[in-house]
Amino acid sequence: MWLFPFKNYYFKTELSRQQITQAVLDLTFLSDQGYRTDGKRKYFYGELDPESFVLQSIRQEDKLVPYTEARMRGVEDDMYLFLTFKAFKFRRIYIILVAFLMLSIGLLVSDFMEYGKAVLYNPPFYLFLSIILGMSAYLIWRCYQFWRLNSNSINFYRGLFEADLVPYKSIPVVFKL
User: Any residues with CB less than 8 A from the CB of 144 and at least 6 apart, and which?
Assistant: First the structure.
């Protein structure tokens, strides 16, 4: 679980859809508006529509997760936000990196089984090993950063939307669809 840097959270707020949209709009350079600025402090690049938003953190000093996707469900005074925090923009990128790492480890082990200790005298072996160690270090670092920034992001969005974190089971069935 720790090595999977994607997490869903559910917030309940009494803000209306328009108020949530305006709160996100105040903190975001929107791609569909040509990244125009109004002089206010911006935290994200992103996309926003009446039902959802996709944000990418741009401020390193505020310590937020790199990517956030959200869907808004509910009626005027009973809104639920389904937020997905991500370390990578797309899950497929993470899956490809993990698959490449597993394939590399498998090939390294098969070389050991086929050639034994003789593989240690082969220079490509060390190149291959350094790629495996480098990719492993990158994935572990990225996962560590994600989980470390998770609580800061929860508190940021809780304050931004004046929302409470709720368990998935407490969300009415009609809003889960």
Answer: none
From the CB of residue 23, how many other CB atoms can be counted at a distance below 10 Å?
16
Residue 52 near residue 35 (C-beta atoms within 8 A): no
Q: How confident is the model at residue 118 (pLDDT cuts 50, 70, 90)?
A: confident
Fold of the CATH domain 6-90+149-176: TATA-Binding Protein (3.30.310)
Sheet holding 52-57, edge to edge: 28-30, 44-48, 52-57, 67-75, 78-86, 6-13, 163-165
The average pLDDT across 21-30 equals 83
Question: What's the predicted TM-score (pTM) here?
Answer: 0.84
pLDDT at residue 75, as a whole number: 83
Residue boundaries of the structural domains of the chain: 6-90+149-176, 92-139
